[in-house]
Amino acid sequence: MKIVIIAGGKGTRIASLASEIPKAMIPVNSKPVLEYQIDLAKRYGYTEIVLIIGHLGEKIQDYFGDGSKWGVKISYYIETIPLGTAGAIAELADLLTDDFFVFYGDTVMDIALDQMLDYHKSHNADSTLFLHPNDHPYDSDLVELGLDNKITQFYSKPHSEDLICRNLVNAALYIISPKIVSLVPKGVKSDFANNIFPDCLEKGLNIYGYVSPEYIKDMGTPDRYEKVCSDVISGKVERLNRKYPRPAIFLDRDGVVTKEVDLLHNPTQLELIDGVPEAIQYINTKGYLVIIVTNQPVIARNLCSIEELNYIHKKLETLLGKNHAYIDAIYYCPHHPDGGYPEERKEYKIVCNCRKPKPGMLLNAAKVWNIDLANSYMIGDRNSDIQAGKNAGVKQSVLIECNQPRALLNIIQNLI
Question: Between the CA atoms of 245, 41, 104 and 56, what dihedral angle is there, to the nearest 10 degrees?
Fold first, then answer.
């Protein structure tokens, strides 16, 4: 399987740091960004690499040569005219006869590429995009997911003020099939996110999102460059690879994150408790996953549909994103054990394994996200939350006062 790395950008936003070398050659901890990517590819057994180069590209060729020093085979495509992130791919169609990875040369990342490829194959995808939440979704390219994480919509920045959307950012790491390559126009400047992928949706191709909390960040501005340098040196970049278990903070929703409203079922009822964005932002900086686990019997009671509940959760993610905070996942139980009401949805009136105090939501999250339960915490405002945490085997369950301003922030700062 080939790796195509787009490394032809001029780096105008970061030129103040190094205008005499290509952006992909800017050193992070004394090593070019591009070298980290080649090392990553080699670590997962991908040794055929195609570098798309342009501005100052000879410096890349002089440094890497044929790649033998790194145990890989490197070939080059030299852009004489900038063709955007996708345009040059059309020129390589004869080489790209099987599915391949696309990296962007200004990205610092450490991803379990084997797991992403397994996901791509299991979904029979025409393309798979790496997605993750971040603390600035309002100025990022976002996507909407449908059933089984199939992408249904792209939202390119800038966004309208009233956009309600999940915090799922297109992080510019792709697996692409030859079917996608055939749709890239030759000799025309084009972009994957803004042109090619939306066109693929219109044509009915299967584009999937691979959601992961692993580290991936472009270093295209001086501020971001400083941040990724710090993260590489501290070991954070490597530590967030999905192969390593991570601890999580499990949070109940109503009364802990959002104000308790009896059977909240309308998005207009949703309101963050004071101090919650700061608390979640603090968790984000400490390397813990943030997982909401919430009983939502409004579904069983037929007060709202699954689609309406999902919209409520999109609003929650949007409000947090506007405050530079993000959650990694939301798990909800739609069931209720007591039946007999005329308006109820009988298929959800069951005794299940996910309704707290049972630990099903936490255990499911632990399996999907490779969570280290023994070093994780559960925070809730009811005894059922506390018991769910204990049943799942978390390190500690903490009872919080319902709807109390800044209570979550105070607890988190003392807990981790």
Answer: 140
Residue 252 known to be catalytic: yes
Q: How many domains does the chain have?
A: 2
CA distances 261 to 19, 211, 264, 272, 412, Å, are 55, 30, 5, 12, 23
239, 263, 288: which is the final residue of a domain?
239
Among 106, 141, 254, 381, the active-site one is 254
Q: Are residues 328 and 268 in the same domain?
A: yes
- Nearest residue to 395 via CA among 408, 410, 377: 377
Residue 225 sits in a domain of what CATH number? 3.90.550.10
* Residue 372 annotated among the catalytic residues of the structure: no
Structural domain ending residue among the three candidates 239, 258, 276: 239
Claim to verify: residue 301 and residue 218 sit in the same structural domain: no
Domain match, 232 and 355 both: no
Amino acid 197 reads F
Same domain for 22 and 171: yes
Per-residue pLDDT in tens (0 to 9) along the chain, 416 residues: 999 999 986 655 554 455 678 889 999 999 999 999 999 999 999 999 999 999 899 999 999 999 999 999 999 999 999 899 999 999 999 999 999 999 999 999 999 999 999 999 999 999 999 999 999 999 999 999 998 999 999 999 999 999 999 999 999 999 999 999 999 999 999 999 999 999 999 999 999 999 999 999 998 788 889 999 999 999 999 999 999 999 999 999 999 999 999 999 999 999 999 999 999 999 999 999 999 999 999 999 999 999 999 999 999 999 999 999 999 999 999 999 998 888 899 999 999 999 999 999 999 999 999 999 999 999 999 999 999 999 999 999 999 999 999 999 999 999 99
Cα 290 to Cα 328: distance, rounded to the nearest angstrom: 5
Structural domain for 59, as ranges: 2-239
Give the integer Cα–Cα distance in Å for 173 and 156: 16
Q: Which residue in this structure is represented by tokens 């919080």?
A: 400
For residue 235, list its beta bridge partners: none
Catalytic residue among 252, 328, 381, 385: 252
Q: What global pTM score does this model have?
A: 0.95
Q: Are 83 and 195 in contact (CB under 8 A)?
A: no
Paired tokens of 298: 């409004």
254 and 234 fall within a common domain:
no
